[in-house]
Amino acid sequence: MPVWLRKTLVVLITVFTLGTVSPPPHLLADSDEKATAETTTNHIENKEMTKPSIEKAPETDFQTAAWKEIAAGYEDTEDLQEAFVAYTVIQATEQTKEKFGERIEAKRGEEFRTVILPKIEETIALLSSKMDEGTLRNLSISDQPTKGKGEKIFHIKNAKTGMDVFRLHVRRENPPGQGHWFSFHYHDARDGFAAHHELGSIYWDRNTPPNWRS
């Protein structure tokens, strides 16, 4: 992966997760030899000048732009996959804040970003690593977490086929005598969305939590 892309992804993940999620180790690995080659070789410099770079785009693009627009800036499949993981982490952060609403976010938002978000990142990295380039470029992420007591945080679909490939949900649970919990899980198209793949749970309180997005 180019040095400029690795450094940019580290910055994006750190900024938009408030420093609570550590970027993948391979993004932190330093490569002085490669950096030197890129800055001293005219061929590489010319190539970088013509290749779209997320360094040249506003950092808010990863929050507000559609994935297909961002994906158009990548030619290399590995770079594309890394960018999709970073993009999804940012979307998960922002959309979960919206779903939580002010009261839940203030009380449990930090715990979500520390405990659950790294597991979402690992899951998306594994999922996207098994996709071909064409599928990666045609993914889209929904932007309307459900209100009330609905489970949906976001769904990822293949925009070309219109079919979901991944569904990120959070379920409210109240085991007898154990208070109220938020159970984060996902559903996967590979098993027909039948199974609940657990990501982890966060304790709320013994009192009933407010509705989502309230």
Task: Characterise the protein shown here.
It is a single chain. Helix 1 crosses helix 7. The protein has one domain. Strand 4 and strand 5 form a beta hairpin. Strands 1-2-3-4-5 form a five-stranded antiparallel beta sheet. It is 48% helix and 18% strand. It starts with a helix and ends in a 9-residue tail after the last strand. Mean pLDDT is 83; it is low at 30-37 and 43-60. With 214 residues, the chain is an alpha+beta fold.
Give the secondary structure arrangement, pairings included:
Layout: H1 3-16, H2 25-28, H3 32-40, H4 42-50, H5 61-64, H6 67-71, H7 77-129, H8 133-137, E1 139-141, E2 152-158, E3 163-173, E4 180-188, E5 197-205
Antiparallel strand pairs: 1-2, 2-3, 3-4, 4-5
Helix pairs in contact: 1-7
Give a quick precis of the structure.
The protein has helices at about 5-15, 25-30, 30-40, 40-50, 60-65, 65-70, 75-130, 135; strands spanning about 140, 150-160, 165-175, 180-190, 195-205. The protein is an alpha+beta fold.
Quickly list its features:
single chain, 214 residues, alpha+beta, 5-stranded antiparallel beta sheet, 18% strand
